[in-house]
C-alpha cells in the first residue's frame, strides 16, 4: 500500500517564500517520495492543511490572508480538485495591526463529530466556526468568537489576543487554544480550554502564561489525562494534568525545549506526542533542532532523551508517519523535509538519509494511498 503526503507552504513575497502551492506526493512501499501534483493556490500561502478522510475533502487556510479553500481528494490518484473557498471572517480594524495581516488564519481543524470546521484567525484575534454540509464543504461562518486582550483606550478599540492552534481532546468535547499576546493589540499570553457543542464555544478554563512567552502549539496525551503546551519565545514545554470531564488544567511541570546551556536565539515551533503515549518531540527554530522527551506514564511528566539537528534550517512543522516509525521535519528556510527513524524503545531520532526537496514547507498531512503493483 502506498501513501500520499500533502505539503502546505508559504508562497508570498512578504514571507520571502519560494513555495508554489500545495504539493502532492506519493510514497511507495520502499519509502520513496514522488511528486504527483502542485496545486495553484487560490490565495497566497496555503500554509495549514486539514484532511477529512471520510468525505475526501482537504481544507487549506491561507496564512496572512483571509480565506479557506476546500479541495476534493481523489482516493485513487491522490490528486486535488478545487471545490470552493470561504472568507474566514471580517478583518480586524485595530490600528496597531499590520494591514497586510488583519485576518491571518493560521490553523484549521474539524470537530470530531464532523459537523463544523474551526479556523484560528491569528491577526483578527478570533476563532471562526463554519458549518459543514453532507459533502464536507464549509458554508459561511456561523459564529465568530473573539479572544480578548487588555483594554486599549489609546486606540479606542478593545484589545485582542492571537489564537495560534485549535486542538480537540481525545474525547472530542473540548478544544485547547494556545494564545499569543503579541504587542499589537495589547494581547495576553494564555491557553484556554473551550467546551464545544452545536457550533458554540464555552470557556471551561484559562491559564495565564508569562507575558512574552507566546504559547504557540499544544497536544493532548492519547489517554486524555495530560496536556502539553509549547511556548514559542519562552522555549518551554508546560505539562498539565487535564480533566476531560470539565476541561480543567493543573500545571505539573515546566522544562525547556532547548538543550541545557544553549544561550543563542531560538523560537520553539512545533510539538508532537507519539501515538504510543511514551514520547514527545519539540522543534526549535534558530537552534534548528528537535528535542526528544520521554513521558512518565504515572503522571505525564517529561524527561529529556536528547536533541538532534533538524537536518535543515527553521523546522516550522514536524510530524510522525501514520505508523509512528518515521518522523519528519519541514525545514521552511532550507526548502526540505528531513526524514528520521524513531527508536521505538527510547524515542530518540536518527536521520534515515532521505531528504525531500520542496519549497518553503509549512505543514504535512498523510493519507492512505493505493495498492502497490506486484
From TrEMBL:
A Pfam short name: Lactonase
GO molecular function, one term: 6-phosphogluconolactonase activity
GO BP term, pick one: glucose metabolic process
Name of the top EC class for this enzyme: hydrolase
InterPro entries per record: Cycloisomerase_2 (IPR050282), Haem_d1_sf (IPR011048), Lactonase_7-beta_prop (IPR019405), WD40/YVTN_repeat-like_dom_sf (IPR015943)
Protein family per UniProt: Belongs to the cycloisomerase 2 family.
The keyword Amino-acid biosynthesis is assigned to this record: no
Alphabetically ordered keywords of this record: Carbohydrate metabolism, Glucose metabolism, Hydrolase
Descriptive protein name: Lactonase family protein
Source organism per UniProt: Acerihabitans sp. KWT182
Lineage: Bacteria, Pseudomonadati, Pseudomonadota, Gammaproteobacteria, Enterobacterales
EC code(s) of this entry: 3.1.1.-
Region of interest (Disordered), residue spans: 85-105
Amino acid at each position: 500500500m502506498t501513501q500520499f503526503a500533502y505539503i502546505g507552504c508559504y508562497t508570498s513575497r512578504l514571507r520571502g517564500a519560494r513555495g508554489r502551492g500545495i504539493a502532492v506526493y506519493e510514497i511507495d512501499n520502499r519509502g520513496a517520495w514522488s511528486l504527483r501534483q502542485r496545486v495553484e493556490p487560490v490565495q497566497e500561502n496555503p500554509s495549514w492543511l486539514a484532511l477529512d478522510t471520510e468525505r475526501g475533502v482537504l481544507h487549506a487556510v491561507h496564512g496572512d490572508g483571509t480565506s479557506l479553500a476546500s479541495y476534493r481528494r481523489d482516493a485513487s490518484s491522490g490528486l486535488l480538485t478545487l471545490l470552493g473557498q470561504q472568507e474566514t471572517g471580517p478583518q480586524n480594524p485595530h490600528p496597531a495591526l499590520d494591514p497586510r495581516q488583519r485576518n491571518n488564519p493560521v490553523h484549521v481543524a474539524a470537530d470530531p463529530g464532523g459537523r463544523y470546521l474551526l479556523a484560528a484567525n491569528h491577526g483578527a484575534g478570533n476563532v471562526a466556526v463554519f458549518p459543514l454540509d453532507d459533502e464536507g464543504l464549509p458554508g459561511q461562518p456561523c459564529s465568530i468568537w473573539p479572544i480578548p486582550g487588555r483594554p486599549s483606550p489609546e486606540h479606542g478599540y478593545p484589545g485582542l489576543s492571537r489564537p495560534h492552534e485549535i486542538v480537540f481532546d481525545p474525547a472530542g468535547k473540548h478544544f485547547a487554544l494556545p494564545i499569543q499576546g503579541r504587542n499589537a493589540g495589547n494581547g495576553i499570553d494564555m491557553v484556554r480550554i473551550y467546551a464545544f457543542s452545536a457550533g458554540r464555544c464555552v470557556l471551561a478554563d484559562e491559564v495565564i502564561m508569562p507575558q512574552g512567552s507566546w504559547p504557540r502549539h499544544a497536544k493532548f496525551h492519547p489517554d486524555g489525562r495530560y496536556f502539553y503546551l509549547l511556548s514559542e519565545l519562552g522555549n518551554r514545554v508546560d505539562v498539565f494534568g487535564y480533566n476531560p470531564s470539565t476541561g480543567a488544567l493543573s500545571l505539573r511541570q515546566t522544562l525547556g525545549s532547548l538543550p541545557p546551556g544553549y544561550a543563542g536565539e531560538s523560537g520553539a515551533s512545533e510539538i508532537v506526542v507519539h501515538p504510543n503515549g511514551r514520547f514527545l518531540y519539540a522543534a526549535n527554530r534558530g537552534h534548528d533542532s528537535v528535542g526528544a522527551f520521554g513521558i512518565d506514564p504515572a503522571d505525564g511528566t517529561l524527561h529529556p532523551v536528547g536533541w538532534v539537528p533538524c537536518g535543515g534550517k527553521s523546522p516550522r512543522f514536524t510530524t510522525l508517519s501514520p505508523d509512528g516509525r518515521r518522523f519528519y521535519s519541514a525545514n521552511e528556510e532550507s526548502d526540505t523535509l528531513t526524514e528520521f527513524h524513531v527508536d521505538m524503545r527510547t524515542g530518540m531520532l536518527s536521520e534515515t538519509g532521505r531528504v525531500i526537496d520542496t519549497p518553503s514547507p509549512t505543514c504535512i498531512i498523510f493519507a492512505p494511498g493505493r495498492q502497490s503493483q506486484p
